[in-house]
Amino acid sequence: MLPSEAGHAVAVAQPEPMEEAYPTEVRRLPEESRLRLTWSDGHIAEYDYDYLRGYCPCAGCQGHGTGEIEYRPPKAPVQPSAIEPVGNYAISFHWSDGHATGIYRFDFLRRICPCDACRADRAEGGDSPTTQPA
Ligand SMILES: [Zn+2]
Ligand SMILES: [Zn+2]
Q: What are the tens digits of pLDDT across the range 14-63?
């Protein structure tokens, strides 16, 4: 058993602010058809597979456009048959419909996080601390 680091709180001055959060764990939740990402800053995000598939950022799915990734609902429910890291900045999914060219950058995944707190953040332009503490 590895001892947990929780509870061992030490005040450490952080010389530089954490910039980009990255997922420390990617877990499939097959019963819920969801993917759970645990982020380096402690945030936990759960994405429906269809939601992720619909947000596939590849050119084939998005076409040429404004640069904004739009949600394009999949024609049929999908599941990730494989999930692979891409460098240290993104994740790629092999979907059960055969599609596998989407590169989901961490910052993008974070941006589309469907949790209530992130939704509220986006709805309000991101700057008001009106959400309840975790
Ligand atoms: Zn795509
Ligand atoms: Zn979130």
A: 555 557 899 999 999 999 999 999 999 999 999 999 999 999 999 999 98
The ligand placed nearest to the CA atom of residue 95 is 1
C-alpha atoms less than 13 angstroms from C-alpha of 50 in its C-beta half-sphere = 7
Burial class (CB in 10 A: 0-12, 13-18, 19+), 57: middle
Quick one: which ligand is closest to 122's CA?
A: 2
AA identity, residue 108 = F
CATH 3.30.2020.30 fits 20-126, yes or no: yes
Give the closest ligand to the alpha carbon of residue 94: 1
Place of tokens 């993104």: 90
* Strand partners for 47: 35
The pTM assigned to this predicted structure is: 0.77
